[in-house]
Amino acid sequence: xxxxxxxxxxxxxxxxxxxxxxxxxxxxxxxxxxxxxxxxxxxxxxxxxxxxxxxxxxxxxxxxxxxxxxxxxxxxxxxxxxxxxxxxxxxxxxxxxxxxxxxxxxxxxxxxxxxxxxxxxxxxxxxxxxxxxxxxxxxxxxxxxxxxxxxxx
Length: 153
Fold this sequence. Notes:
Helix content: 25-40%
Order of helices and strands: HHEEHEEEEHH
Low-confidence stretches: none
Shape: globular
Number of helices: 5
Radius of gyration: 15 Å
Largest sheet: 6 strands, mixed
Number of strands: 6
Distance between the termini: 37 Å
């Protein structure tokens, strides 16, 4: 499988809400960094928790890849992500509102498995579209990160 094919299979599984399917394309020590949330998951167990929480909040989450480039073990995509907030996330209650955002994502693929993902999109624009004051969302994510870090220590 080429790196591009690995990423496409992973993204297709994630878009369909298939958490085990998207994790089967990942290394045991995979790192998923969501820059907008200032968070990262390390390893499949943390990634499963992150994906389950996010897809529970946005069950119709979808990724459109407008540009998709492979350079050696690096895959880059630019496109649009969408979702409707149907469940809680980081202590924020569901609003029923939807978001549509441009994104950039970088994946590093090793041995036909994803080793690292770095996902970039605009945090403020997301929460504005979801009807949540961005200061409130930022404070809740900070508290969520603090709780997550406390359980790891």
